[in-house]
Here is the input.
Amino acid sequence: MGFLRTAGAVAAKDLRVELRSREVVYTMAFFAAVIVVVFSFAFVKDQKALIEAVPGVAWAAVVFAGTIGLGRAFDREREGDTMRALLLSPAPRLAVFAGKTVAITALVFTVEAVVLPLCLLFFNIDIGSAVLHLALVLALGALGFAVVGTVFAAMLLRVRSRDVLLPVVLYPILVPMIMAGTKATSTILAGATGDAWFWTQFLAAYDAVFVIVALWTFEALVIE
Here is the structure.
């Protein structure tokens, strides 16, 4: 219960700060919306949208916007030196990691909730009853991004070139997640339920593996 209480307190703190300023989520949502709008003009020819392009556009928007939000969220910890305070407190460090991950997952999922309707609108797509399956895929993607991103953003917190290094070290790890998310989205839009569930399970397995790896390595990486 102490672990869950601490994780909830850390997540609530981050989300409360964001609700007051709305700085990170507005930046992420605006950047993601710009990507979708720009690519919609590139992939819509003669009033016909290239449906195959939609998954790539959506996931690119989410990942790029999420990276911006990830860096800015941890800049707050650096500016206020609150990350050091959290690590020096009696609270379990893994609970700190869990709380930060929950908060970032919520921010990324919020951006996905903006990106999906925009993609459906600009590319004129009707997903019908598949909306719940697609929401599950996006939720798994948000969790995977947050788990990996939290570890690397915390590790690079005090590195001067962290804004450059974060995408460099983060994106190669996220490639399997991006591929699975894109494939799952594509098969959902195509109506191939069997293939869609395979990629959904792949995303779930990716999340499970990296949750275990992150819990195992977070404390050592942050201390170093």
User: Anything to note?
Assistant: The chain has one domain: 2-223. Residues 2-223 form one domain.
